[in-house]
Structures
1.
Amino acid sequence: MLVKRAKDFEEVVPQEPGVKGVRMRVLSPDEGSFVMRVFEVEPGGNTPSHSHPWEHQVYVLSGRGRVFIGNESFEVEEGFFVYVPPNVPHQFVNAGEGVFRFICAIPKVS
Amino acid sequence: MLVKRAKDFEEVVPQEPGVKGVRMRVLSPDEGSFVMRVFEVEPGGNTPSHSHPWEHQVYVLSGRGRVFIGNESFEVEEGFFVYVPPNVPHQFVNAGEGVFRFICAIPKVS
């Protein structure tokens, strides 16, 4: 079992090209069958625009964001759920003045 | 793709024996490889004490709770992550005066 504050997990700063102002924490233990991560995107920051063979399941915790999925974009805030199917280009952009925080869960196969 | 407020998903009231004051919404679409749900436990309410062959991965959104896992219990509040391994008895109890809200994700095999 594991019971722990998200902020006490190790913080990682993704270095992928195109990423800006993003911090990430992996919450799930190794034995989990999928992986929950918490992302924090600073004002002016964004995740990279990319695609990959695994899905995203996202729950927005705070802040305001614009999510690009394929050829569409959506404004999101606290309480929004976002499903990004496998192999669809996507990007998460902070569209507000505070930190844009969200849970992003992925399958273990990724 | 899917972008939707969690509160706009259908609300289900679990009827399992031992459950009290609980509402649940399934967020993930059918094509997801795992399932995110949002639970709301009213003050004085609780999920049933039970076990099953699938894990739980939980992120606490608001309120205060006591989580029983095996022979241990933990107080949790906003920002806590909880991993309940498969086949371990567990229960989520509202230990505060407001609604205890959390995301509880499970594998698709359940």
Note: The two ends of chain B are 23 Å apart (CA to CA).
2.
Amino acid sequence: MNQKKLNIGLIGCGFMGRTHSNAFRQAGVFFQPEFTPVLKAVCARTADTVENFAAQWGYESTETDWRKLIERDDIDLVDIATPNDSHYEIAIAAAEAGKMVMCEKPLGRSAKESAAMTAAVESAGVANMVWYNYRRIPAVTLAKQIIDEGKLGKIFHYRANFLQDWTIATDLPQGGEALWRLDKDVAGSGVTGDLLAHCIDTAMWLNGGIAEVSGMTETFVKERQHQLTGKVQPVTIDDASIFLARFANGSIGQFEATRYARGHKALYTLEINGEHASLKWDLHDLHRLQMFDHADEGRTRGWRSVHITDGDHPYMDRWWVPGLQIGYEHSFTHQFADFLTGIASDQPLSPSFAEALNTDRVTDAVLASAETRQWKTIGN
Amino acid sequence: MNQKKLNIGLIGCGFMGRTHSNAFRQAGVFFQPEFTPVLKAVCARTADTVENFAAQWGYESTETDWRKLIERDDIDLVDIATPNDSHYEIAIAAAEAGKMVMCEKPLGRSAKESAAMTAAVESAGVANMVWYNYRRIPAVTLAKQIIDEGKLGKIFHYRANFLQDWTIATDLPQGGEALWRLDKDVAGSGVTGDLLAHCIDTAMWLNGGIAEVSGMTETFVKERQHQLTGKVQPVTIDDASIFLARFANGSIGQFEATRYARGHKALYTLEINGEHASLKWDLHDLHRLQMFDHADEGRTRGWRSVHITDGDHPYMDRWWVPGLQIGYEHSFTHQFADFLTGIASDQPLSPSFAEALNTDRVTDAVLASAETRQWKTIGN
Amino acid sequence: MNQKKLNIGLIGCGFMGRTHSNAFRQAGVFFQPEFTPVLKAVCARTADTVENFAAQWGYESTETDWRKLIERDDIDLVDIATPNDSHYEIAIAAAEAGKMVMCEKPLGRSAKESAAMTAAVESAGVANMVWYNYRRIPAVTLAKQIIDEGKLGKIFHYRANFLQDWTIATDLPQGGEALWRLDKDVAGSGVTGDLLAHCIDTAMWLNGGIAEVSGMTETFVKERQHQLTGKVQPVTIDDASIFLARFANGSIGQFEATRYARGHKALYTLEINGEHASLKWDLHDLHRLQMFDHADEGRTRGWRSVHITDGDHPYMDRWWVPGLQIGYEHSFTHQFADFLTGIASDQPLSPSFAEALNTDRVTDAVLASAETRQWKTIGN
Amino acid sequence: MNQKKLNIGLIGCGFMGRTHSNAFRQAGVFFQPEFTPVLKAVCARTADTVENFAAQWGYESTETDWRKLIERDDIDLVDIATPNDSHYEIAIAAAEAGKMVMCEKPLGRSAKESAAMTAAVESAGVANMVWYNYRRIPAVTLAKQIIDEGKLGKIFHYRANFLQDWTIATDLPQGGEALWRLDKDVAGSGVTGDLLAHCIDTAMWLNGGIAEVSGMTETFVKERQHQLTGKVQPVTIDDASIFLARFANGSIGQFEATRYARGHKALYTLEINGEHASLKWDLHDLHRLQMFDHADEGRTRGWRSVHITDGDHPYMDRWWVPGLQIGYEHSFTHQFADFLTGIASDQPLSPSFAEALNTDRVTDAVLASAETRQWKTIGN
């Protein structure tokens, strides 16, 4: 039986607090890891909120000050699910306290913050991971396997979009509890850090490093009432962000993220074209991978819609039977199961803080390029 | 150069008169046949109608009595595109006059009529063909090739639907010029002869003979005003027709046709499931063939959407370049090109009157089964 | 806080034991019901099996004799997830012991068994429900709402298929632990009770009672080695089952289930065509509902692919945010959440044993029709 | 009856010569224009080629020197379907001879050539049009109507890709008869002028002028054997071309064209996102328009797949009946029918040379931007 326990302290009770909590619960049951996750404590600023959350999810205790949670001896892993502006301080404090650290993406509000956070976990030598969950959608993981096997040959093109439409209404306020993603001080940026960061993380995982970018951003609604001040204030985030990219392997890419694409709720799409084969995937039908294999016989060659629900598909032997799809939340469960496996076997955890820092270097470059109207090389 | 000419006499200026005329014109250009089709004469009862039609399509002359057209020495091929109730008389007269005969489907209003028509062309020894045009949609022709190559292995299932929705309105009249398909005396039956006949023709072509059927029909709107009498009269056609089938090869089938499937204009779908592979096609995306090949590697096995626009796809070397789709009308052009090739090379013409008679035996059996509520064996 | 507890005793540790257990766990967290589900005991014949299962899923105790479990005072709800041949005995015993009873579908192996089971729960006055889980796929629940609102008008057609391909290999054995679905004594029937039953339950829920049927079955592979006896024995289940139906409301239907449709893993499809609108859904893209609304403006009328992930879609306010799909397992969670709500509010539980009995009457009629080659009226 | 004749002189017998010839023939029949098109003469350099072409398509006479054709009094319209490097000279000569001029796209090899060509037709006052045929795909024309009616509201985003894969093989030669598109001297540029030009023409037609661009090009295969010289020579065209755009109306766009997108034959896709609604279309399913209308009721809002085959869809009243799709070639027929209507009614012809010049200004800017790595403003 699983004797080892991993005590988790979650900070943040919002949308991501929920996805992580579900992952902690489900990974234990479905993946039967060596370490059994224990929902030891949860922290949020408001006592009512955190107590309700703990009752709902089964956390053993609560805190209202994250520093208290980090100080506790009975916490092994600090999981950060707060708005972006507190990632930096919490992660560094947790690392210095010797805790394992998992952090919701983006790592920091800028590569500068992320670099310090990365230095902190590396210097402390603590296990660390960032919740770029889409890598663990089984279809995406399978894409990675196929690419790594060399099936695509030389890569020519990479394309990724992340299209949403929830901020089109001009009377939507900005800032505050639910809408901090529209407040640059809190979020760091708009769609670049929120949505493009996902696209970039997956792209570099699948297709290697990005060498240079030319970006462009737009803020369609220039002013919105701020929830905290009550005043109509300029909107300072990027509503939309597009960029061209050159990858280190010679392939070229185009990326776009927006919250103004009417009709698309969370349409993250990616496509990669190689010499021999191509792959496509999107989040609105996340249980399918599209593949075109030029080696197929000519007359009957076509894009295959692969229903990723079989036992030989990544992670799927843990779930149901062929034909029965899983959903969005499972990507977090898979990531946490891999985290548990990683710490048990002392294998690399990925995406690490260092990898997430690389993503932030690209998002910083995109924003800088958009501002200066110049191509930007990605440094380190 | 093409020295031989084939003089065509078309009877009927409706929808099918138009599709046939286009085929005559286009086959000559795109397939460069040994016999050059000549639009020699067209016939319809009303002088104005037939003269306008001839002017539009380039027919050299007109007739208003089909018997006159058949008598003419300068006509090689009589093409019948009239409502169903005149197919019988015209076809037999044309055969007896020694003309080649092409006939719009269904051949007769019943197997009895069709048997006499078949006997007439066979006894006269004249070239004959029935316009079951869907066999010559390139995707369907490719399906035939794949099945004949044995790629599917033993067949288990066949499914075909033909779904329309244009007669739902209760104030739609029946009978007369445009609506003769709703008049049983003229049409012979409702959707069974009109739509199911297509499904059955393709099914037997792809999957062999049908041994027995259990059918069911329904007339949803019981009375409609008749266009000719002006009176509200009972509707005697079948609005919908469904049947179960056993094929001679041991596979089983389900078929359905209706004009009450809201949202579907002309959705002819077919699917065939074999031991090793399956195929699907539908008329609303007629330029695609769906194929599932179990021999594909397990992880990346999926339904392939094959875009039938390449030079190695049936008929497609005559049209454009890969990726550029053709349409509905081309199926008639292909059929007529094959007719021209067939008569030049003395090869079998298919579907012949004899094949179309077999289809009518099945439609008769479906109607008889629906009426008697018994399974019916298909005789000959 | 949730003070009331509902103690669950699960019988059966197979595939359905897993889906139910997940539902018990997740319903408590995501739906915050008045009754908190407690995984009190689980029962299976083999001690090792049941102990491992209990450890994995968090059951407090185990039994190896289901009668013992039923006798226990600390069990409120008996949940039956065993093969079909023990549903009858367990359900009746549980009802007689005054327990609430949930039973995996089909209820009995025949309407005769199901009638006795229904009488038992009704006579005992205990809460009862059958796991026809597909009603609680949010897209299917939404279809029900739309139909009940009258949006479709008069119904003309209903179509449902359940297509699988996992028994095509002739060397697949029958019977025993994992393959009892191929053993008629255990399962009651083949695909009729296993797959068609789902189609029939949903159909009658959405479109009302079925009046009569004409069915046809086929067993493609006639002999298989039996896992328990080791001998090659005749296969007595139906591998495929198709039927025509007349509904009480005058609409007509076609249904098919098979395990020989190469390329389809668990493709449950349904479509309903009404005077004003039509709906389509399938299990391979379970998070989408297709709708055609004839009231839309003519030029831009088309099938809408509705991504069922919004807060105003059934059950979806409990999960994530728009665009993020859930999966198969959630249908069980929703059903159990509704069960908990139902018993707390004394509202009807559906599908009840009585409703499942009606489904079994139809499956019995389909099988009888196939055997006698006659139409069968559905009695009560 | 149609008494007026329009005598056509076609120059060029390649792929585009075929599409134009088909359009001349079909427009006369299906659109019954006031002017009847007459295939008076066709010209190509090789006598055999041009005679075969004339015989196949029904041209009355042939020329092997385009200057001769232009000099002829019996030619009203000169249609240019030659490789790009002769558009300039022919168009100007034809205009100076007072002929109507239609020219295959792109107009010139550069905006400089196009400006002179435009000046020539405007100075001569002759009817002129450029074959940007995709505007007349009925789904695209319908998109234009919907946008012009204001249905989309303020536009935020425009996206277009044109993806092909036919030049991936490294042993494909460049230049010469069939492969002049790979020869920069003849073509002017690679995919920018060939494919992106289509995307830009449609984009500006639907969404107004483009103000500035940031582009990037790539040549994946650096050397190929040249068909004319037989030598391995550097490839100087752009194999792929991507750019970001700012439209005059404030919306932003991304565009991509490539011949290295494995799996895509001719996948021209476009999408436009507005405040109230969005539209999508692609060339591989050219008979469908996707529309999302935010005004639809929330629960059943979704992307509509509109099957553009009804009588109230643009141009479709001239073809068949609902549900029956047309193909690629029809876009040329529609354009020529509109040309005939335009000259009969003295209405503007579009796209005119002046409009095509604007497109070339954008393609020039894309190439210049790619070379200089700077944003480029579109001048006039």
Note: The CA atoms of residues 207 and 247 of chain C lie 8 Å apart.
